[in-house]
Amino acid sequence: MLTIQNYFNQVKNIDWEQVPAALSKGHQLVEGASQNNWSAYHSNANIQRVVEAYFQKLNDYLEKNKASLPSQAAPSQSPKNLPSQTKSLPQRAISKQAARPSQGDKPQGPAPKPKAPPAEDTYETTPVEHVDTDVQFIRRYAAMHGKVKSQEQILNLLHGLQKAILERRIRKDSPYAKEIELMQNQLIKCYEKMDQMVEVKIDSKNLKRYLEIAHSQEGMLSITILKAYVALNGKKDIKDRAQKLYERMKKAVQSGRITKADPYAEKLNEAFVTIKTYLDSDAPYLSINKAQLNGLMGLLGEDLFGQKKSLNGSDDPENDLVVGSGELLRMDFKTIGLQGKYAELIGDPSVGFTAMVYGLPKSGKSTLCLDFARHLAEHHGRVLYCAVEEGFGYTLKEKIERIGAHHPNLFITERVPENLSDYDFVFIDSVSKAAMDVEDLEKLQRQYPDTSFVFIYHTTKEGKFKGVNSHAHEVDVIIQVEKGQASSTGRFNAGGRMKIQNG
What we know:
By secondary structure, the protein is an alpha/beta fold. It has 18 helices and twelve strands.
């Protein structure tokens, strides 16, 4: 029988491309659950149940599809953070022939369809900037009702749900925490009992509640359009896509679905101008100006809402690039209001600032950045610290405890998540370990213009970056860490020095 002690030793010779997709997906789930000596497995009963159910299904599959391993197969190294391996069972290899489901795996005919849910127009829906993660998962689960689903589809939903929980995108204090827990338990039971296919049936009372939640939020049309707009940035040969989006924007305004009262009307107008300029030009790709995404008016004179006002308020588009000095002084450029020792170090940066922190290994970079992250979390908003270098290990825990870098607004992850919209500040430690280049970092800045980023780099003994030196020209603040001291240069009256806190 497969266990957490022998799993990786038992499956090291399996060709995962040749096994059923559900089992391959289960293997990916186990890889995540096994990190840091199976900490997620030991701390979360639901993850433990899913892993145990997967072990049973994989074990059954291997028993049904026995095949001998090649004698010359070389043993692989087990993950270094796993517990010591117990005595292994005989190994199995999966052949292409064995990967084909047997006649007994065919699903039985579907049961009578459950009672249809209420029509969507019976629900009260609130337009929101971003549909909550828990609502998204409940919507996906409710949509499965009455449909025949495969093991892979059930496991995909479970995997995504538990990933969101581990990343704290779904929390215990969520308004729908009870519904999420019930949904998770139902999915686990379904997965434990099913063979290859199953018809998903949700109790009528629970289904009614799930549908109420699923339809409680709807993404704002303006946000949907802006996401489509950002997706075009830097892409070549997208004239057709740009034209469709351009027409969609005009139609949305003409039909009254989007008005000047929309909170994102200004940004939509900027996007409209940029798309029109791209369509009228011979430019090979659409490029979004960073200033646009930071809330400035487009500078080209054409207006989605039929206005011809320039940036300085005149009716002459030719004056768009010329702003009086007094007008400039009256413009409001929002800063984060930084105070204390970090204001002395880097000044008061604007919203959406970028910073680079660099220095030799063991110089104190991570300690400085964790303390800075704590300060921002305490006074300025939600902070995500991507500890790609250290991961959820002892050294990171020791640093956090030593300097007191813990706060309800400070969150830690081992990687850079796909969605950073929930955070005001993001630290990436380190850029090289995250395998990110300048283009990746610039993409993050374009995608999240109101989020501030702190990028941590290692240097060699010669002072060269273990990454890309050119990125130094793109950030607002540069902080050098050397022998427990931090010094800065930059655009916000930076130039201070400070001793790094050691606890």
